Amino acid sequence: AFEVREIRFDPSLPSRMFVATNRSVFMSMNRGFRFSRLWTNVSGTRRITGLAILNTTQTKLVVATGNGLYLSSSNFQSFQRMPAAGIGSRRIRYITSIAAAPKWLFVINDQGVFVSKNQGRRFRQLREGMLSPNVRWVAVRPDDPKEVWAATDFGVLRWSKTLAGAITAGQWRRWKKRIG
Fold it and tell me: Would you say residue 162 has pLDDT above 70?
């Protein structure tokens, strides 16, 4: 079955968009009028779960799957499995990045929330104060990668108390404001 899992626009070239289905990644250079297939996941039953854009000197695409992370070449012609040290489980549920920190990636797997500040080579878990590893969604403030929010079974949590700019020195706190 054809399931669209993610749609991302390239911040450095807004007419370029990427679409991930459960099995393949497509690119359009003209805002979705025509697409070309970039990559098909051949890792068995492990589906594509998301996309992130690393907008460094050359834009690269990171594909999250139920079997790890894959990084594109700068021309999107090839994809290589990323080492992703420190991530534990390779069953990725969600991935995101922000333009304000072009080398940073945020990943959710079945063990919690992880951050990489070096394009996915090494990850650190954001675990202090997390009430459950069952995180559904992560949002990162577009202009500040240290402001991270998580949607969990226990409500909304916010990562706080980063020390000396180190995101891994904080902890999760329950957002006590009422929503709705």
Answer: no
